[in-house]
Amino acid sequence: MLHLTRSATRDFAHHRLALAALAAWLLGFTVLALGLVPGRAGPGPGSPWHQSLAAIGSLLLLVPMAFSAFKRSALARRPRLWFGAHALCSSIGFVLVCVHAASGRFWSPPTVLVALLLFLVLQGALARSLLSQRFSEQFGTRHPSFLAQDPLRRRTLAGIIERKRELLARLDRSADEAVFSPNLRHALRHPWLTLRYAQLAGRESDLVGARRAAGAVLRLWRRLHLLAALLFTLGLFAHVALVLFFAGYVAQGRAVYWWHLANWNLGS
Q1: pLDDT level of residue 215 (50, 70, 90 thresholds)
Q2: CA distance linking residue 77 with residue 79, whole number of Å
Q3: In degrees rounded to 5, what are phi and psi of residue 263?
Q4: How far is Cα 86 from Cα 66, in angstroms, rounded to an integer?
Q5: pTM confidence score
């Protein structure tokens, strides 16, 4: 009963985060739709107010990157708290960046970043609200391949598990093979051992059918999210660098009215 209560509480919290992300997406989309209309007058995206919102929003949008790095390096001792920060900071940062972008021009290079951000927030919210139950159903029950292993597969699986335990004794003596997953810290300290362990874990997953149980849709969904997040992060860094150090190039002959560090022009 206690386990069910905790599980229900976690699901409720995840759904609340998903609803908050969806509400932020609707708010940000509305701000963009109202701001990026032809003939609109008002301060540009480089005005002190809008540039400040963009700076705060960009910093908040980097929290998911920190969450991902900490999760893979075993530095995050409270992963649920970090995940909550990931979702909330992304939602707030998204709205702030939308306010900044809505004061600019629709047909401009930063529009690609805004489109990626729209996709990321919406996809993340839908994944948490619609696919989390599917994850729970698949990983909370035993796959038939666990119950109907032939003798050869059972012996092969036992050999793989034994080799994993031998590697784990050299990789991380305090870890339990049943729940261990190598992270960035292990890869930096013992790259060859980490690679060999990951290969064995992959063979084990193929034997027990865990990868098939995860489903192609879920794998594709996650990979799309990670790819879009990587492209957005790279684009964000490029945009910030251009605005701050190549203001002359960004202005394209117009007045540079935003705060910047250099007025270089790549075309000169």
Answers
A1: low
A2: 6
A3: -115, 45
A4: 9
A5: 0.67
The answer to whether the beta carbons of residues 227 and 133 sit under 8 Å apart is no
Please state, in angstroms and as integers, the Cα–Cα distance from residue 255 to each residue in 43, 44, 266, 268, following that order.
14, 12, 16, 17
Residue 50 above 80 pLDDT? yes
Amino acid, single-letter form, for residue 265: N
What amino acid occupies position 241?
A
What is the 3-class SS of the chain, one letter each residue?
A: CHHHHHHHHHHHHHHHHHHHHHHHHHHHHHHHHHHCCCCCCCCCCCCHHHHHHHHHHHHHHCHHHHHHHHHHHCCCCCHHHHHHHHHHHHHHHHHHHHHHHHCCCCCCCHHHHHHHHHHHHHHHHHHHHHHHHHHHHHHCCCCHHHHCCCHHHHHHHHHHHHHHHHHHHHHCCCCCCCCCCCCHHHHHHCHHHHHHHHHHHHHHHHHHCHHHHHCHHHHHHHHHHHHHHHHHHHHHHHHHHHHHHEHHHHHCCCCCCCCCCCECCCCC
> Are 230 and 23 in contact, with CB atoms under 8 Å apart?
no
In Å, how far from its chain's centre is CA 258? Answer: 30
How far is Cα 229 from Cα 232, in angstroms, rounded to an integer?
5
CA distances (Å), origin 151, targets 147, 154, 213: 12, 5, 22
Residue of 66 and 231 predicted with greater confidence: 231
Beta partners for residue 246, in sequence order: 263
Distance CA 183, CA 244 (A): 35
pLDDT at 76: 54
Higher-confidence residue: 55 or 190? 55
